[in-house]
Design a protein that fits this description.
The protein has 4 helices and 9 strands. By secondary structure, the chain is an alpha+beta fold. The longest helix is centred in the middle third of the chain and has 13 residues. It is globular and about 60 Å long.
Length: 182
């Protein structure tokens, strides 16, 4: 809802739930509206600048997410307050944080270079190589087959492939220069 041009006491509907009562809660981040979908256990991102209210980005989770905007930046990092993260919290205690990155931002290029240096791989395919390693954690290791599902990321659904980068927090803290407090 937003205030109307007619006066501060009137509200206009700027977005309506696509399926009645499917969205648990929503929060605004930059120019987007991020909502938790309880019917499909998904995170939905709506671009309010587009004429269609349909979600432009959807990410399936293993929980019904309650969505919040958070700031995990260190207090000494002089970033814009708009540069915030999305946190999803479930009733069972699971917490997932997402850091939205613009495709025009240099953060991904810096991450690629740092991963390439750390793992001695060419920078051109650093992300693909790391994603392959994350997807097959037991490659070249002696282990039983029973633990593969235990160590796979809990949100590794087929429909999520190539939408996000899932990295270990320790690896990200060594490779990323984003200033996010881990």
């Amino acid at each position: 809802l937003e205030s109307s041009e007619k006066g501060p006491n009137e509200l206009n509907v700027i977005f309506k739930d696509p399926t009645s009562r499917s969205l648990v809660n929503a929060t605004a981040i930059q120019t987007k509206l991020v909502a938790g979908d309880k019917l499909f256990s998904a995170l939905r991102v709506f671009d309010l600048d587009k004429p269609s209210p349909l979600p432009g980005f959807s990410y399936t989770l293993s929980m019904i997410p309650r969505v919040y905007t958070t700031g995990f930046n260190a207090f000494w990092d002089e970033k814009d307050p708009q540069d915030r993260q999305i946190s999803c919290v479930a009733v069972n205690g699971q917490v997932v944080a997402f850091n939205p990155v613009s495709e025009h931002d240099t953060e991904l290029e810096v991450l690629k270079q740092n991963l390439a240096i750390e793992h001695n791989i060419p920078a051109s395919n650093a992300i693909d190589t790391i994603m392959e390693r994350l997807d097959r954690p037991f490659l070249d290791k002696i282990t039983g087959k029973g633990f593969l599902s235990v160590y796979k990321p809990f949100f590794d659904f087929d429909e999520n492939r190539e939408k996000l980068i899932d990295c270990d927090i320790e690896e990200l803290s060594r490779s990323s220069g984003s200033g996010i407090l881990l």
